[in-house]
Specification:
heterodimer, A: two-stranded antiparallel sheet, 12 helices, about 20% strand, B: alpha+beta, two-stranded antiparallel ribbon
Chain lengths: ~475, ~1050
């Protein structure tokens, strides 16, 4: 059913219900019928990924020290970077400077049966190499953090566009009434390299705010306004909500506005969320072995590791899109000191999440995306690397992804994606495809145009990495 | 035969239906073009790059030339064949196209060709036409021409209008719509009692004259122009621009005509009669997002700013979506890429920077030394009426507090104080007594220094301790009151010799690490004061509550200049060579006794020579440190009912501690109000930069044609007989000229939507070919022409809509409306509308009585979840919620952080204002429920509401009735009464048994805690009030 028909149906059914049904409506415990079911009721493709966990390595991790091994670059270390590569291209902080090559400072190893090359800084991701599809030929259009994040999330640099999670929720609907369908968590690294992020990255844009990402906080209330005010016990909260809904039901009889029935349901949902969130964030049922596997020292401490475990718990409870930001990867300087710190903070938990999902039989329908908003220059910037958009790497796992393969490549110096380049729109189209959605058919009329996540130009599904 | 052509809009809340009856001839604009535009123009429209088979269907001549159809003969038309065929190779649109034609649409297109395939120019691009005012079946129902248009159409559709809403509903509706807060019970009762036929109009007139009106009208405009307190990109730093917001509010209140409103914003700096006010308005051109991100390319960001301005111009004034024309000619509308860049070139004279910093890799000498705390120039200094009023109020209050305290003064103490001042005046007529150093010690890195100081002949202390030592100077002066200290630099020796020469002003290293303050190596003078009473071993540290200097280094914190001596006296080497002085106001005055010790501590000293003074006064002018004659006079004046000496006495002696702390808090706020002067970003014209067409929006491409300011080719041109370069003023005048077909329609359509819930054309942001044709084109044209003919009078236009019967109808569904017009586009009833985010806040504050109705001023910070800005950097942000009456000001004044909008605003669909926003979606989400239930603002409103009900005489029932009247301007039904009285009883029983929980609930927010014997009752009533504040009816207007 299209949104239009669904809406018309809802309105009609409400008017048809009359006042008798209304009074009983709000007395029921659950109203699954008010859950957002999505505009795509008949998926365009088989649904491989029911949910997505995006592990965003915010700041832009170096592809040259993660997934893209370049011995030729190592050989050129400290020497002038060939001008033939860089002429006429955009630079960020390396504008107006002499460009020198910086070789990778880490060793790479072939991991698993697939023998995928992954840096020694990420041994745990290495250990799950056979689950990963590594794309070495990513490229993006935006060279600064702010706009690159916007582009990676919404496919546009014009503000007010819905983010991936909002599109997914809008398209596929929610799987739970008790938790938000789109959740965001952030953590900050202890080394250098943190950059700010913006709630625009999980905005619903021009879609209604029910599709926005809900940020879970490390401290205070997990979700804004989810805790009862001091001095109000859950039973009293329930009593108030019952009365609010009772009076709203009386109003519905007078003015017959369908929004009122929705409002009644939203209060029920809010109350359910209030009880579900504490259960979600209560780690006491998790074994010591699990905590150790993720590398969690103290549960709920807001570290990336703790957030990864929380992500798994959300996935189990039907959250559609879970996005984790670890703000630690902007290594303009001290990359040799700070990247290992950031790797240490993320490697173990990322791999633990993938294996944990796998053991629970959830990896098959959970797509995990690991990567940043861009890569880093093969040229040095003092003791670090600058932003780089012409070639970088990402990894995907689960949810219909073929594990153990490396897709595409950059040139010999890791500068430009030359073999089978993948744009951000291609990545989005691929992810939507795995969710059962033809990207060109998930659109919303906005300002007279069919606005889409993948924009107006062509976008191609990367078929080779699909199972 | 009837067709139903539904159009789905983004929010899925608007479902316009256009019904076409079989007898009537099809209208190209209304019935045909929307289909063609949506299904065909993408490949057969104005965008030449994507033109397929060289066939254009948007132009009759072109289509006929390619023999697309034969007018009047559908059977012979290729168009119809291709549309009807089942051959997948031939069918149009092609099978892979997302947009396919429905059977009904195919019928319409075929019939249109049968009727002769008549094209019409796009309705919005031709001049509005004045149609005769139609006659309807029952003219007695018409209050004004609006109703004639609406009722004539309803007659045709076989619907009847609804009855007028009852007076309670009506006054609540019109009050919320016009001023954004509900009517008070007194206002409701006055309206109920007013038997005059003019009663309703009188209410409208009162509301239009209310200063609240401007605050309400400004909200959608601020969305359109994307007004926010922060710059949006990356570090999302603060910008200084609240005077622009206040200008907008004031402009609506003064009802300046819309053409002037337009001109001042686009070109307030270029007007022949430009004023400070109009320059403030020109801040409009500076509301785009800005960046200071390291590594950002200035040229790229200048291109982004330029495109943003064009999109805003299109959205705010022309109802046109120009975003696509940045990269290519519009696919559906006649806007070309040249039009886009010609528009952009109107703004090429705006002085700005692509990146608001000076990085070593992107030099920007204009902004040398700029860090993350600096503002975003160009700015001008203006006076804020709000701050001036605030200063006056605070000053008057301080006087009052001092008078009240003085009423209880001890006469002996007072005359002793006055006598001590007379004695002081004899020896120190300037009001300052020198402090002479009697002893000193110094410590550096734990080691005691030798040779700490020597004294010059005139008492100047020459400090000889090594730089960065902590120097303790024991100073002596005659016993008596001390309220202020003064430190004067004394360049008797070469001060710079003692300053570290390697750390000079202009040699600071330019760090590329963005959060390093470039100038942190410059000297800072840190003074502390210790008072050791005679016989005591332990010194008491006396802090300073205020201070300022005759000269100091300019420093910024989060975009604002740091006032006074916060964090020390920051100087430069140049200042070190002068006689500059700094005045420090003691936290509280001290009375020095014989034998007391006074120690000045120079922490990490950089001074080489200085003189020190003390005064029993606090100079009115802290920067100069001068004690004025008026201050002396006030101190010596004779006590009377009201006399100025009371405040001097209070400040000089702290004789009443409570009064003193209130006055001191006021003094701090007065100092922070900077004499009412604030900086605000403005347009400053410079030599226009070159504007090129950027193919595909690529800023690196310098091959595009150079363009100059010009109106879009398909619209009337700007007269330019002298062939001079057109400017922003020409643009503004063109927007509001009689020949512009768009501006007046766009504004009136939006006004209609504001009061009716949906526009005459539902696509408020798109009057182009993909937008929705108006439901009542003649009415929209009537309103547009009427607006123009009445000199763009906004209040008049508003009033005309509100006076109509169409507006006054009840908002109650009827089966026949549901059946024929479920989206209520024909206006057989009023629509229920949920309040916008800001007004949901205002409503709760007003109902509870907490609301503070001041107009304008710096943005305010309501309670906000902690750590909400944790992901912001450059600089890191602390959100300090206001702890005074600012907490209760209206939503329009809330701090608007673009990257992290206050969760209450975001949950209720307020836009981030990063981009021009014309339509807010209206979600209905659990987050909204959680906000109203648990956000401390709403909990506090509920408990204060409860407390105020307690003042009402009578029983619980009487109070509950009064609560309903205050909340939703109506009486409760018996069911409602029963239900809530039961809740009250239940909660009273609970809290009586759990007083700790009652107290915990009643401690939420800043408002005072009620007396403990009332806790159980108040907490129970808080629940009842909370239910009322959460009602759908409360956050909606019926």
């Amino acid at each position: 059913m299209s949104a239009l028909n669904r809406r018309a149906f809802l309105s009609r059914s409400l008017y048809g219900l009359g006042s008798i049904a209304l009074t009983s409506l709000f007395q029921q415990q659950a109203h699954a019928d008010e859950r957002w079911r999505g505009v795509i009721t008949k998926p365009h493709y088989p649904v491989k990924a029911k949910r997505i966990i995006h592990l965003c390595m915010a700041g832009g991790p170096s592809h040259l020290e993660t997934f893209d091994f370049k011995p030729e670059l190592k050989a050129l270390d400290g020497k002038a970077f060939p001008k033939s590569f860089t002429k006429g291209q955009q630079l960020a902080q390396l504008q107006n400077t002499t460009l020198k090559a910086r070789g990778p400072f880490t060793e790479f190893k072939k991991w698993g049966q697939s023998g995928q090359e992954i840096s020694m800084l990420f041994p745990h991701l290495g250990s799950v190499a056979d689950e990963l599809a590594i794309i070495r030929s990513m490229h993006t259009e935006q060279i600064n953090h702010d706009t690159a994040h916007a582009f990676m999330n919404s496919g546009s640099i014009i503000k007010g566009r819905p983010s991936f999670g909002a599109w997914m929720l809008y398209g596929l609907g929610a799987e739970t009434d008790n938790l938000p369908g789109f959740v965001v968590m952030t953590s900050q690294g202890k080394g250098g390299g943190a950059q700010p992020i913006s709630s625009r990255q999980w905005s619903a844009g021009f879609l209604p705010s029910r599709f926005q990402g809900i940020q879970f906080q490390a401290r205070g209330d997990a979700v804004h306004y989810v805790a009862n005010p001091d001095g109000i016990q859950p039973h009293a909260q329930k009593a108030d909500i019952d009365d609010i809904n009772y009076l709203n039901g009386l109003l519905a009889q007078r003015v017959m506005d369908s929004e009122i029935a929705t409002r009644i349901n939203q209060y029920e949902m809010a109350f359910r969320m209030q009880s579900s969130v504490p259960e979600l964030t209560d780690f006491s049922s998790e074994s010591k072995a699990t905590l150790k596997r993720y590398g969690i020292e103290k549960t709920g401490d807001g570290t990336f590791a703790s957030n990864c475990l929380l992500a798994r718990r959300m996935a189990e409870r039907g959250v559609r899109f879970i996005q984790l930001y670890h703000r630690a990867f902007d290594h303009h300087s001290n990359i040799e000191k700070d990247l290992p710190i950031a790797a240490e903070e993320t490697d173990r938990a990322s791999a633990a999440l993938i294996m944990d999902l796998k053991e629970r039989g959830m990896l098959d329908d959970t797509l995990v995306l690991w990567g940043g908003e861009f890569g880093r220059t093969p040229m040095s910037q003092g003791t670090g690397r600058d932003h780089h958009i012409l070639g970088f790497s990402l990894a995907l796992a689960g949810g219909g992804i073929k594990g153990g393969i490396t897709y595409g490549s950059t040139d010999e110096l890791g500068y430009k994606a030359v073999d089978k380049p993948v744009s951000v729109h291609d990545l989005h189209a691929t992810m939507l495809h795995l969710c059962g959605i033809e990207h060109s058919r998930l659109s919303v009329k906005f300002q007279g145009l069919d606005a889409r996540l993948t924009g107006v130009e062509e976008a191609n599904v990367v078929k080779d990495i699909l199972r | 035969m009837k067709y139903l052509v539904p159009i789905l809009f983004a929010t899925a809340t608007i479902l316009p239906t256009v019904t076409v009856s079989g007898a009537e001839k099809l209208s190209y604009n209304r019935d045909v073009r929307p289909i063609l535009s949506d299904a065909c123009f993408r490949c057969h429209g104005p965008d030449e790059k994507h033109l397929k088979a060289k066939l254009r269907l948007d132009n009759r001549e072109a289509a006929l030339k390619k023999e697309a159809f034969v007018p009047g003969k559908p059977a012979e038309s290729e168009f119809v064949k291709r549309m009807r065929t089942e051959d997948t190779d031939d069918i149009m649109p092609p099978p892979e196209s997302v947009r396919q034609l429905t059977a009904a649409e195919k019928d319409i297109l075929e019939r249109w060709i049968a009727e002769g395939a008549v094209y019409e120019p796009h309705w919005a691009y031709v001049q509005p036409i004045k149609s005769p005012i139609p006659t309807s079946k029952n003219p007695a129902w018409n209050k004004n021409p609006i109703d004639a248009f609406i009722h004539a159409r309803l007659d045709k559709e076989g619907l009847t209008p609804s009855v007028e809403a009852d007076r309670r509903t009506l006054i609540r509706r019109v009050t919320l719509d016009l001023i954004g807060v509900p009517p008070t019970p007194d206002e409701v009762n006055a309206f109920l009692a007013d038997q005059s036929p003019m009663a309703y109009e009188r209410v409208i007139d009162r509301l239009l004259a209310s200063p609240r009106y401007g605050e309400r009208m400004a909200v959608p405009w601020l969305d359109a122009v994307r007004f926010a307190d922060t710059v949006g990109f990356h570090g999302d730093q603060n910008q200084n621009n609240f005077p622009y917001r206040d200008w907008v509010i004031n402009a609506f209140n003064r009802n300046i005509p819309f053409d002037r409103f337009t001109a001042e914003q686009l070109a307030g700096d270029l007007l022949p009669d430009a004023t400070t006010e109009s320059r403030v308005a020109s801040g409009f051109n500076r509301l785009n997002m800005m960046t200071r991100e390291g590594g950002a390319q200035p040229k790229e960001y200048l291109a982004k700013y330029a495109a943003d301005r064009v999109r805003t111009l299109g959205g705010a004034f022309l109802g046109s979506t120009l975003g696509c024309a940045e990269c290519h000619s519009h696919k559906y509308d006649p806007w070309s890429i040249e039009d886009f860049y010609q528009f952009s070139s109107f703004f090429a004279d705006i002085k700005q920077w692509g990146v608001y910093a000076d990085y070593k890799y992107t030099k920007n000498t204009d902004l040398k030394g700029y860090g993350n705390d600096h503002p975003f120039p160009p700015e001008i200094e203006v006076e804020s009426p709000y701050l001036l009023k605030r200063i006056a109020t605070l000053t008057a209050n301080s006087e009052k507090i001092a008078q009240a305290a003085f009423a209880k003064h001890d006469a002996q103490h007072f005359s002793a104080w006055q006598k001590s001042l007379r004695d002081f005046q004899q020896t120190h007529p300037a009001g300052w007594a020198p402090l002479s150093v009697s002893k000193a010690s110094g410590k550096r890195k734990g080691k005691t220094e030798k040779d700490t100081y020597k004294l010059d002949a005139d008492g100047t202390a020459i400090i000889t301790a090594a730089r960065d030592s902590d120097v303790h100077l024991i100073v002596t002066t005659a016993p008596g009151w001390i309220a202020s200290l003064r430190l004067q630099l004394a360049p008797v020796v070469n001060n710079s010799a003692l300053l570290d020469d390697t750390k000079t002003d202009n040699k600071h290293e330019e760090e590329d690490q963005e959060d390093k303050e470039n100038s942190k190596k410059l000297p800072v003078i840190n003074v502390a004061l210790l008072h050791t009473p005679k016989g005591s071993e332990k010194p008491t540290a006396i802090n300073f509550r205020l201070g300022d200097a005759s000269d100091k280094r300019k420093r910024y914190n989060q975009g604002h200049e740091i006032l006074g001596l916060d964090g020390g006296w920051f100087i430069t080497h140049k200042i070190a060579q002068t006689n500059a002085s700094a005045t420090f106001v003691l936290d509280h005055p001290i009375q020095l006794q014989d034998g007391d010790t006074l120690t000045l501590v120079l922490k990490k000293n950089v001074l080489s020579a200085a003189r020190f003074f003390a005064s029993p006064f606090i100079p009115n002018n802290l920067a100069s440190g001068d004690i004025s004659a008026a201050q002396w006079q006030a101190a010596f004046s004779k006590p009377a009912n009201s006399f100025p000496g009371a405040l001097s006495y209070l400040l000089g002696t702290q004789f009443d501690r409570a009064a003193f702390s209130q006055v001191a808090a006021a003094a701090k706020e007065i100092a922070e109000s900077r004499d009412g002067k604030v900086m605000t970003t403005v347009s400053e014209a410079m030599e226009p930069a070159t504007t090129r067409v950027l193919a595909r929006g690529n800023w690196l491409d310098e091959s595009g044609a150079i363009v100059t300011p010009k109106a879009p080719a398909f619209l009337p041109q700007i007269p330019n007989p002298d062939q001079r370069r057109l400017n922003r003023l020409d643009l503004a005048q063109w927007l509001t000229s009689d020949t512009n077909p768009l501006t007046a329609r766009v504004f009136m359509n939006r006004l209609w939507a504001q009061f009716m819930g949906v526009g005459l054309s539902a696509s408020l942001d798109d009057m182009g070919l993909q937008g929705e044709p108006p439901s009542h084109p003649e009415l929209l044209d009537f309103l547009a022409i009427d607006f123009r003919e009445h000199k763009w009078d906004m209040k008049r236009a508003v009033k005309q809509i509100l006076l109509s019967m169409t507006y006054r109808q009840v908002a109650v569904q009827r089966p026949e409306i549901v059946a024929k017009d479920p989206a209520n586009r024909l206006r057989a009833m009023q629509s229920v509308r949920r309040l916008d985010a800001e007004f949901i806040r205002d409503n709760a504050l007003a109902i509870s009585g907490l609301i503070v109705h001041d107009i304008g001023g710096p943005s305010i910070k309501p309670y906000q979840p902690s750590d909400y800005y944790a992901n912001l950097q450059f600089p890191s942000r602390d959100y300090l919620a206001h702890t005074n009456d600012q907490q209760y000001r209206r939503g329009i004044y809330m701090h608007w952080q673009r990257t992290f909008l206050h969760p209450m605003l975001a949950n209720f669909d307020a836009p981030s204002r990063e981009e021009c926003t014309i339509m807010r979606p209206a979600a209905n989400s659990p987050q909204q429920a959680l906000t109203l239930l648990n956000d401390p603002t709403f909990v506090e409103a509920a408990r204060v509401f409860a407390a105020s009900l307690h003042q009402i005489p009578g029983d619980d029932k009487a109070r509950l009735i009064s609560a309903f009247e205050r909340t939703i301007a109506r009486q409760p039904s018996p069911e409602e009464l029963t239900r809530l009285l039961a809740l009250l009883a239940q909660q009273k029983a609970h809290y009586t048994a759990h007083l700790d929980q009652a107290a915990a609930l009643l401690r939420i927010g800043l408002a005072p805690l009620p007396p403990s014997e009332q806790h159980a009752t108040m907490a129970a009533w808080t629940h009842v009030c909370r239910v009322l504040l959460n009602l759908h009816e409360t956050i909606s207007r019926l």
